[in-house]
Amino acid sequence: MAEKMPSVLVFGGLNTYSRALASYLVPKDGAPLVSHIRIVDKFSVHPPTTYLGAEFPEILKKPEIEYKQANLTNQSIIPSLFDPPEGHGPYDYVFDLTGEVRQDRTEMIQITTTCNVARLLGTEAAKRKVKAYVRLSLPYYKTADKGPFDEKQDPKPNGTCGTWWHETQRILANIEDLNLVIVRAGLGYGPYINFGIIPTFITVAAVYGDMQKPMKSLWSPGKQPNHTVHSEDVAAGMFACAQWIAPLGRAAANDKAGETIPFHNDKSKVAEVEGMPAADKTVTAPLFNLVDDSQATLLEIGQISTSFFNTQFEFFNFIENALFKVGSTFNIKDDIVEEINEDHVGHWTQMLLRSNPPRPNTPLSAYMDKYQLEKIVVGMSNDKIKSVVGYQLRKPKYNHDTIRECIDTWKAEGSWPAL
Predict the structure, then answer these.
(1) pLDDT value for 148
(2) Residue 404 class from Cβ within 10 Å (0-12 exposed, 13-18 middle, 19+ buried)?
(3) 7-191+228-295+378-396 maps to which CATH number?
(4) Which of 2, 10, 236, 377 is the most exposed place for a label (fewest CB within 10 A)?
(5) Is the CB of residue 198 less than 8 Å from the CB of residue 405?
(6) What is the C-alpha to C-alpha distance for residues 147 and 257, in angstroms, rounded to an integer?
(7) What is the structure's pLDDT at 327?
(8) Residue 280 backbone phi and psi in degrees, to 5
(9) Residue spans of the chain under pLDDT 70
(10) Which of 185, 167, 172 is nearest to 241 (CA)?
(11) Which PANTHER family does this one have (predicted)?
């Protein structure tokens, strides 16, 4: 007798990775891996209020897929979202892709939309005794220049966003009987992914290729790690982690892969934020890094990206750098952000208008915000997820082939200029 396929509940991530997860679990062409999948997020899909890509609307037509628009900060609706549709048993796996991704959001917004939402979902999932609760953590950390770090290392959360995304891990790890796995992903990219540093980097590299000028960075010599991961591996890796913990349960999973989640916050916040463990409390959860095998540096990412568009990757000279940087922390002035963006953003607009036909409504942007222009250091080892979970990467390298795959999908849907 064939084993019953799991039913899946996905929260958040419509603007990041839940579309890739849905496409992996219920392929457009191929057999589904799950019996039912419900995706819940704040966005509308009919009509769309965020970028969906060309494939996801087709996936939504599949009988296994259900989409619900909901405000997950509203505690009263959370239990109903865990109630399966008629004819289906309780949900087996929950994938938590919630959280505010904008770096410029206030601490209160991060607490409300990142920490509190995850706490509500995790608490309800524990009550429902779901077999797996997989929390995706985005790369809002600064690791050391000489990485890669394994999961026992303690990278520093990056800014307000990173602080509260990290605290969310502690809050979830502190929920008793929650079959939690934390997946800490690298810098993501892939078909239909317009979120994050790498898709912007590809777009800007295309602009400098069209201008026949080198693309320049502030951060010479560029040896700091910028470790990447393909969206297909984000999806498949999360599913593999759910399959891994489901037969084990939390206690056994902690024994095999548990890591202490250190405190990186203001101790005064413990009394203010519901569910936040005390600063001196040791909280442990299974934790896996998820990056590809590229182990790339900023220089290598730059060279791979620009060479695809027949241009070069270079660095500003010392004098130029001095104008762009302030103090020992190398924070970039707001006016410098606009100055850096001026040429390539304007040229990207020209490329979209020169396209035949024009592409004025692309979701892709050549604008690099302050966070994207700062020194990004993401260095993580993927050895643990390979050895403990047995995960095998589907897209092990960031290279010309994976860049071409992204651009081909954007071209086919009309998001990339046809020049």
Answers:
(1) 66
(2) exposed
(3) 3.40.50.720
(4) 2
(5) no
(6) 20
(7) 42
(8) -95, 5
(9) 1-3, 147-148, 318-331
(10) 185
(11) BIFUNCTIONAL POLYMYXIN RESISTANCE PROTEIN ARNA, LD23561P
Cα dihedral across residues 196, 219, 295, 145: positive or negative: negative
* Domain extent listing, the chain: 7-191+228-295+378-396, 197-225+296-373
Residues whose CB is less than 8 angstroms from the CB of residue 333 and which lie 6 or more positions away in sequence, other chains included: 324, 326
- Rounded to whole angstroms, how far apart are CA atoms 360 and 415? 9
At 345 the pLDDT is 96
Q: Render pLDDT for 344-362 as a digit per residue (tens, 0 to 9).
A: 999 999 999 999 999 999 9
The pLDDT score that the predictor gives to residue 339 is 87
As given in the structure block, the two tokens for residue 236 are 């498949």
- Give one DSSP letter per residue of 326-373, joined into a string: ETTTTEEPHHHHHHHHHHHHHHHHHHHHHSSS--TT-S------HHHH
CB contact set of 256 (below 8 Å; sequence gap of 6+): 248, 286, 388
Specify the 3-state DSSP secondary structure of 80: helix
Among 78, 46, 49, CA closest to 60: 46
State the pLDDT at residue 143. 87
How confident is the model over 107-160, as pLDDT tens digits?
999 999 999 999 999 999 999 999 999 999 999 998 888 766 899 989 999 999
**What pLDDT was estimated at residue 328?**
38
- Centre a 10 Å sphere on the Cβ of residue 372 and count the other Cβ atoms it contains: 16
Phi, psi (rounded to 5 degrees) for 351: -60, -40
Nearest one of 243, 192, 228 to 393, comparing CA atoms: 228
323-329 LR contacts (CB < 8 Å, sep 24+): 324/218, 325/218
